[in-house]
Write a structure and sequence with these properties.
single chain, mainly alpha, 8 helices, 2 strands, about 55% helix
């Protein structure tokens, strides 16, 4: 069995989350299904600015990944996906793309619009992700980096950067905002 560094392992787990039709490839359609899941789970219309922003952020990330792949590709295998993410992570645009995704996700989760995610909003998100509420306190505390009992947009962005770019904890909590909720064997 191959052994992978933490970033590669996390990206392989992300691939399995994004490959919503389980065809062994990630396409724009897989990202679109994630956006559609947010629409349904949060009862938002496609015309809602939060959904438009989420779709735009994922589209930019998708295009960024395709620029790292062979010309003309419109789908990525797991190895291509990981390699594209790793290459994109080395680009100067990586932090900007992750910041856009963090802002878009944050705006959906911040249901009351007070510029912070409280425990109730986070619990709703965990239910949306089908994560047991028993894990909520631990996950929330790991994401609440400043200990103020709220998750800020900055904390979401920092957790996404840690997930994508840093060789730290395999189970860095930023994956939660991408649907990566558990370690899968062979990942």
């Amino acid at each position: 069995m191959a052994t992978f560094d933490p970033i590669t392992r996390r990206l392989r787990r992300l691939f399995s989350v994004l490959d919503t039709d389980v065809d062994g490839f990630v396409t724009w359609g897989d990202y679109q299904r994630i956006v559609d899941k947010y629409m349904t789970g949060y009862a938002l219309a496609r015309s809602d600015d939060r959904i438009k922003s989420l779709e735009k952020a994922y589209w930019a990330q998708w295009l960024g990944l395709l620029t790292q792949a062979n010309p003309g590709q419109d789908r990525l295998s797991q190895d291509e996906f990981v390699a594209a993410h790793r290459a994109a992570g080395d680009s100067t645009n990586a932090s900007h793309l992750l910041e856009d995704i963090a802002q878009a996700i944050f705006n959906v989760l911040d249901v009351d619009g007070d510029k912070r995610i409280n425990r109730d909003e986070f619990a709703r998100y965990l239910a949306f992700c089908e994560i047991p509420s028993a894990d909520a306190t631990i996950i929330f505390q790991r994401l609440d980096l400043d200990g103020d009992a709220f998750i800020s947009q900055r904390e979401v962005a920092r957790s996404l950067r840690a997930f994508h770019l840093y060789n730290d904890d395999l189970n860095t909590p930023g994956g939660i905002f991408l649907g990566v909720t558990e370690q899968r064997s062979g990942a």
